[in-house]
Amino acid sequence: xxDKQKGLVEAVETLLPDAEHRFCVLHLYNNFKxxxxxxxxxxxxxxxxxxxxxxxxxxxxxxxxxxxSKAFQWLSARSPxxxxxxxxxxxxxxxxxxxNLCESFNGxxxxxxxxxxxxxxxxxxxxxxxxxxxxxxxxGKSSSRLCPRIQLKLDELKKEAMAxxxxxxxxxxxxxxxxFQEKNVxxxxxxxxxCRKWNVSGIPCKHxxxxxxxxxYPPEEFVVDCYKKEVxxxxxxxxxxxxHGPDEWPNSNRSPLHPPIVEKLPGRPKKARKKQLGExxxxxxxxxx
Length: 289
Ligand SMILES: [Zn+2]
Hints:
mainly alpha; 4-stranded antiparallel β-sheet; 13 helices; binds zinc ion
């Protein structure tokens, strides 16, 4: 998931042909609103992005066309498989629209990024060493079969599922009917629902849960494996090895590593450089103790 810098679409398609490339919808919206302002447009864009069904996506886009044809043209020029759940692949089991994950990792390593290369890598290594066992212990304590946040999500959906009526076809399929007679088709064997939320996220939707309740099946069994506690613990089961100090590091027989040639970029540097102690002293003309 990228914040849609120019050229990335082609680069990802060429270098990672099997990867699904998404745009962070917050970044997409920030670009959109530069030329298309207003709460109504904002609401429609987010509705189109969050829709899991193509019919709902099309309804949002048609509304946008009626409200502001220029905004519609702008958004239509961006292929929806990069930014709308209605077009996301159902292979990945991930319905994320925002790249909060990368942003928070970036936030975590901000301090380390200011350091020279070896200190930077050392800070990140220690952060990860701590994080791996903390995450393992946190999830290990949970009594649920699922990761804690997924369980909370599922518990909310179980409550919502109670509002639906279910017609069973005698095998693995159901018609699930809501209060306004809206209908969804659930297939427990294929792990799908016509609302496509289950298909995209790997977590059963309220319609599917209504079908499971009818059959007295626990919905936890139908969550995709990657959200199960057992799989999470496996991912966090390998601890990092502690490292000796630099005086014990082996000597390299390669020629010394030279710093890269730094090209000066146009414009002002983004962040003020940290002054060394010596520079501070020289400027003040006084010597610090
Ligand atoms: Zn559904």
